[in-house]
Amino acid sequence: MDQQQEYVVRTIENQHVRFIRLWFTDVSGTLKSVAIPPAEVESAFNHGVGFDGSAIEGLSRIHEADMLIKPDATTFQLLPWDESGEKCARMFCDIHTPDDQPARSDPRGILRRALDRASELGFTFLIHPEVEFYLFQQHNDEFGEPVPIDNGSYFDHVSHPLAQSFRAQTIQGLEALGIPVEFSHHEAGPGQNEIDLRVADALTMADNLMSLRAVVEHIAITEGVVASFMPKPLIDHPGNGLHIHMSLFEGNRNAFFDPLREYRLSETGTKFVAGILRHSREISAITNQHVNSYKRLWAGDEAPAYIAWGKTNRSALVRVPTFSAREGHSARIEYRALDSAVNPYLAFAVLLNAGLEGIEKDYEVPESIDTNINALTDLERRIMGIAELPSSLHSAVKLAQESDLVATTLGEDAFDYFLRNKQREWHEYRQQITIFERKVYY
């Protein structure tokens, strides 16, 4: 065992930890776990824990079922809650084949490969996310109209006692897991909240986002409410976005900063933007993976449906936040299409590879747009050369099928499974008879 693994074993013994939960995700981004006792931790480090990979969405084919999960000792943290009165901990895991090779379909491994590509070019990929979610009252009809726990709006100081305390409990839980929070507030929708995490490397941040979901859902259960990261749970209110701020660093130097260029965004930064804009349509099935995602994008709120970029322009797909010349380390771009139901490992991987394509292939960035794109007419947008994101999951999947970038990023097995899974979701969705149809046509 290495030093970090030895530290984990000692901590488990000293803290009298009874269960260690090994966390990983399937290709759809659902958190999975298996619990092991302290006596099995050393063996898990050395040999992994075997499981049936074919039973987990997209990880392996039935004739290649045997897989191993190997815990990443650097992710060890005590959980901020007990299980049956016993102290518990968690570690994120990487998935391996029986011959101890990284599984090509492991979402964490997919992101690692993209980060390795960036590292070969001398870059570290950093992310700062803004995570939105709704809190609803529990009621008997699980599929009825959800009822928010409050009627607050953006930055409101709501009087509902649970609304006041929920974010505080979440922040305490995250900090107990070693995840620093920048700030939190009530968002624009009733019962909607936002929690912003402090910047971290992309792999750590993907782990942190999975932890945030687990903490929020745990607190919701204990408080008797429903937490939803659904992209568009309410018809007349904003959806749940996952705006992410991205930057590349070369050592301690922000590669996106150049005080002499427009917006103080370096040539590397603008090429990265160009790559994301050029590939944004074909990666939409990954960045917006559900049929419901496109109702958020095309609802007419601040979610971006048009492929453009600009300085502080919240109607654009990519915007450059304001920062001063003295804050060169803060140079970044914001991608605004992601929603909170995304698989962060896959989304970060395709966004990074799209940006790197722009750098390596010297893409030209289009002219920036600093007007409200949503307020333009279709004709005005066509004249300005502003393209659209796909309007449905069906369209997004068709574009992904033809994408070399998505296929290369995901690898053959995950690519094949993801497409089949999304085609099945669309097929099941289009067979539904909706309330709208009954109201209009019945």
UniProtKB/TrEMBL annotation:
Signal sequence segment: none
Record keyword ATP-binding present: yes
The keyword Disulfide bond is assigned to this record: no
Cofactor: Mg(2+)
UniProt domain GS beta-grasp: residue ranges: 15-100
Keywords: ATP-binding, Ligase, Magnesium, Metal-binding, Nucleotide-binding
SUPFAM superfamilies cross-referenced by the UniProt entry: Glutamine synthetase, N-terminal domain, Glutamine synthetase/guanido kinase
InterPro entries in alphabetical order: Gln_synt_N, Gln_synt_N_sf, Gln_synth/guanido_kin_cat_dom, Gln_synth_cat_dom, Gln_synth_gly_rich_site
An example Gene Ontology biological process: glutamine biosynthetic process
Listed GO MF terms: ATP binding; glutamine synthetase activity; metal ion binding
Ranges where the GS catalytic domain occurs: 107-442
Family under the similarity heading: Belongs to the glutamine synthetase family.
Database matches in PANTHER family: GAMMA-GLUTAMYLPOLYAMINE SYNTHETASE GLNA2, GAMMA-GLUTAMYLPUTRESCINE SYNTHETASE
Name of this chain's protein: Glutamine synthetase
Species the sequence originates in: Arcanobacterium buesumense
